[in-house]
Amino acid sequence: MASAALLGAVGFADVSQAAPIHNVVLVHGAFADGSGWKPVYDRLTIKGYHVAVVQEPETSLAADIAATRRVIDMQDGPVVLVGHSWGGQVITGAGVDPKVKSLVYLAALMPKPGESTATLETMKQFPPPNNDVKKTADGAYFYLDPDKYRADFAADSPANVADFMADSQVFLAVQAFTAPVKAAAWQTKPSWAVLPEADHTISPDLQRWMYKRAGAKVTEVPGSSHTVFLSHPDLVVSVIEQAAAAP
């Protein structure tokens, strides 16, 4: 009888472990904010996921990782952690949190320990697709030239959407740009990536190289701009669901 009870308990634990994750935490990138996640948020919540959006300050890598971990801590169970662009740098560090079970990178940076955004985006073999990132007058923050924003960042989004994003963009601290991650969650946790082939913000070749190095499961999207979560939200949701369902 005891053996039967033990086997039942083990069987129950296995089923529970295999159940899809229902918590999704979304981390935006530089030159954007959390409002861009609305199409993905709406689709996920309709499907029954509990979704939280991090509004990280972009004042430093440490501050953004801390902001993300505060939101992770509020979830009631395992988490799929999703990062766009600079958000990939953030989830790589924040994803070591034990609640995080899988990671999704959307047109995102995917550093290894010791690498910063500056390290990756200045690699000679992967030149940046644009030179439209400027510094504020005090030299402390980066921003994307509003006049070039749509062409560089959101080319396949309506003009009014891109204009709003350009005028509401969150500036990225220079010190965040040069700060390396201390640990990389993807080295011990499964990861997925969505690669927009017409990205004019982060080189698609750099993305392909990073994702291959990490062994991520990659979905390439022909013709998509950097804001693939806006232009292809259904595809992005399907990848997040794959990460949520993986054992």
UniProtKB/TrEMBL annotation:
| Coiled-coil ranges per UniProt | none
For the keyword Hydrolase, the answer is yes
- Check the record and name the Pfam families matching this protein: Abhydrolase_6
Provide the AB hydrolase-1 domain boundaries: 24-238
**In Gene Ontology terms, what is one molecular function of this protein?**
hydrolase activity
Going by the UniProt record, its keywords in alphabetical order are: Hydrolase
- Secreted as UniProt keyword: no
Q: Output the Gene3D superfamilies linked to this UniProt entry.
A: alpha/beta hydrolase
Which InterPro entries does this chain map to? AB_hydrolase_1, AB_hydrolase_fold, Sec-Metab_Biosynth_Hydrolase
Q: Can you say what this protein is called?
A: Alpha/beta hydrolase
Q: What's the source species for this entry?
A: Acidisoma silvae
